Amino acid sequence: MEWFNIFMARLRALFRRESVLQDIEEELRIHVEVETETNIKRGMPPDEARAAALKSFGDPVRNTELGYDIRGGGWLETLWQDLRYGARMLMKKPGFTLVTVTTLALGLGANAAIFSFVNAVLLKPLPYPDPERIVSVWETRPGGGSNPISTLNFLDWERQNRCFQFLSAITGDTVTLTGSDSPEQLYVQRVSASYFKALGVEATLGRTFAASENEVGNDLEVVLSNRIWQSRFGGDPKVIGRKITLDAKSYTIIGVLPANSTFDRTGAVMWLPLAFTPPNMTRNYHWLYTIARLEPGVTLKQARDQMDTIGARIAALYPDSNKGWGPLALGAARSGGSRAADRVRQCRQYDPGAGYGPRTRDRYSFSIGRAPSPSDPAVAYGKYISRNPRRRGGPRAGQCINARNETVVAA
Hints:
The chain has helices at 2-15, 17-41, 46-57, 60-70, 73-92, 94-123, 151-160, 195-199, 226-233, 300-317, 319-322, 339-348, 382-387, and strands at 134-140, 146-147, 149-150, 164-178, 184-191, 205-206, 221-224, 243-246, 249-256, 270-273, 286-294, 326-330, 399-401, 407-409. It is of the alpha+beta class and 411 residues long.
């Protein structure tokens, strides 16, 4: 409570100046009398003893003011006078006052909003177990810069790497949910079976995907966000095992994700298995976004070195499609922030229909066609490609490219 006593003493010095000055004068008088008695005991006459005591303490008026300043009264009084003066000036010019206060309020609000965003996106660690082990993995273009990944390159990385405990591909899609309620178009993500394991997330109801559900024919399962479970299914705990119809196909609900998690704050409301079909099997169509979890004890540098070796091996085997291309593992998201952290968060909250792509501020646009999916690969990145003609295999403006590397004219 020492700080409280100091604070109260300074407030007393500010608002009860005369009383504090009297206390200081009284304290100085007592010191002078004590010094005078000491001098008398040393054999000095009373008058000389008092004069010597006063001389030893100096000017009493100056000492009183100095004591007042030490108690905080001086600078607090000056501050109070300045505030009163400033208030009087502002009251004399109400128009100027209004503009000033409004400007300060807007500035403070903007700074608070920017800090909140920076803290959430760059500084705050990812809300997953061992977030320092979560990395994003991209491809590098021959001319430099990061890029999404082709299907065959991703599958080769998945088979050959020994540095990642889990490596998961992600892409976006839109589906139409039909059934008892009116049809509703939903944004979903198609992900590898290891996606939730890479993030270290378990379903709060049911389960997430098994490895076998990456295969065509076994991919008719869906994991719900807690948000859509509450809004569309009424939070029914018996929803596990229920059949729903997405794009005229019957899917089985196998899990519900935790409440108030990052999955409730993304554009996606459902997650479906990412099962590759023959048209997807190409190295020329770069459409996948990837996150990974490092093996325990593996550093990011070791992962980069191993992925560089794998990339060089693939480029040597397939020079027509992979010459100059290679993998790029970016750092984990952790306190302190980095572009790598931002990109990991892009994967965590990736919204291909309304998100930002790597190394660009252009927004993806799927106004030409649907988002890329295993069952509908003939989709282009529309405006993004037309604004980025250097993209691998990128068509001219107004055109798009499908998974079979065929250029089609935008409708």
